[in-house]
Amino acid sequence: MKTYTVTCTEICAECEGSGYVDNHLWRTLFADLGDGKLTVEFVRQWELDHNLGENIGPEESPCGECDGAGKIVQQVPLASALRDLGVEVRS
């Protein structure tokens, strides 16, 4: 029995196609900073206060869902692809 598949490519929902995701810790840091000035000293103290040692990490990193590609590529059954396109498929 033959099985037909097609390649399905979707924009990654996690990173919205950018290939990168924001580090939530930086959003928290900026919220804590308020209108203050971002300095190395502030970041170091903030890291210590949040038990991070000296490693808050980068502001953004490659998306783990799409491995930084910005899209998800997968093989799907032909019948599923046709249904997604609005074609009525008989069993």
Termini distance?
15 Å
What ranges have pLDDT less than 50 throughout 5 or more consecutive residues? Answer: none
Beta-strand content? 15-25%
The tally of strands reads 4
Strand order of the largest sheet: 1-4
Q: Give the quaternary arrangement of the chains.
A: single chain
What about the largest sheet? 2 strands, antiparallel
Write down the secondary-structure element order: EEHHEEH
Keywords:
2 domains; 91 residues; alpha+beta; 4 strands
Note down, in words, how this protein is organized.
30% of the residues lie in helices and 22% in strands. With 91 residues, it is an alpha+beta fold. It has two domains: 1-20 and 63-91, no CATH class; 24-57, no CATH class. The protein has a two-stranded antiparallel sheet with strand order 1-4. A two-stranded antiparallel ribbon has the order 2-3. The two termini are 15 Å apart. The mean pLDDT is 91.
